[in-house]
Amino acid sequence: MAGKANHIKLFSFNTPQMRAFHLTWVAFFICFFAWFACAPLMPVIKGEFHLSMAQIADINIAAVAITILVRLLVGPLCDRFGPRKTYTGLLAAGSIPVLGVAMAQSYESFLLFRLGIGAVGASFVITQYHTSVMFGPRVVGTANAAAAGWGNSGGGVAQATMPLLMGAVIMLGVSETMGWRVALLVPGLLMLAMAVVYWKFTQDCPEGNYAELRAAGIPFEASGKGGWASFVQACRNYRAWLLFVTYGACFGIELFIHNVAAVYYVDHFKLSLKEAGMAAGSFGLLALFARALGGWLSDRAAARGDLNSRVNLLFILMVGEGLGLLWFSQTGSTALAIAAMLAFGMCTHMACGATYALVPFVNRKALGGVAGIVGAGGNVGAVLAGFLMKGTGDVRQTLFILGGAVLLSSVCAIGVRFSRAAAANDKAATAPAAA
Length: 435
What we know:
Growth Hormone, Chain: A, nitrate assimilation, 18 helices
């Protein structure tokens, strides 16, 4: 841990740690922008391809489901090749379906490209991996959560700006049919540009790049073989699977709420589309600070207590999320519904940050494998919530069931607890860094 940063100098770009911090959240922002860029344009796309609601549901599920597999893959790839090569490759390869969706001529081709776009959601795992290897125990929770939260906001920005971008293109004299296609070229080109920047200005870890370090025989934290070996090692660790469940119960719920909140406000509270959009958008804005707050509180709890203090915080946040979700599902007035959504939304985003504040401590030699498994859990949660919604056919009933499921999942957080010896060892390792 000697080379890891134990302070976040937010306005500095002079160290490899801070360059990685800033470039990884910017890359994550661009990837999430590209991932959600199609969503606000779907009313136009639906009309052009004459899509049914069932086809739209299939498109949405496909975009989330493929991310599960890719998140499982990119974690071990980070251990093997390093986050610099892995992120550059994902940005370059991911730009192909993002650019390709603008060329789609049918439902089938659009579905295929939308499936490919879902792969860029795996950028989250690389983001968390890179900040985990660059920052020490004192601030790793804050670094992970801040990078993830700021990157997450790319989805919200896409919702707001893609219709404006399409409108600007149409004002130049382009038809609506061509306007949405031109607008979707922008995120693809941004991904290609970011791939070049990431390759040029980052390195894998404080000591350098993995390939050069292995060739020189220089030891570093993630010095294992990586790849399949990393994944197998992570799979054998029960804590990785418990955090898989907890992340499904927080980030999975976050994705689900993004998809249904506006519809819920229109159907149950008779708000206009504009009012419902503003209400639903407030949930997404919480990502700008709430996830970072969860990571920061986890670091503070560990500084005052030990590693298990992080576990206790995650449990408390998940209980708060479950209770708030039950409240949100049962309230009858618009004001109370928004208050309940913001309350459980705070706990949800903070729980996401607190979950990944624990990931670096599960298995340092298989960090990528653990990060991939836990990250995939978030998308599994979103997919299961989507199928539950299709089964019940009612948003309110689905929210109520999900609230109970989150409370049950909080038990998994307690199960992550570390032995006294492991907690003491971590405390001893943190003390020199603090000094």
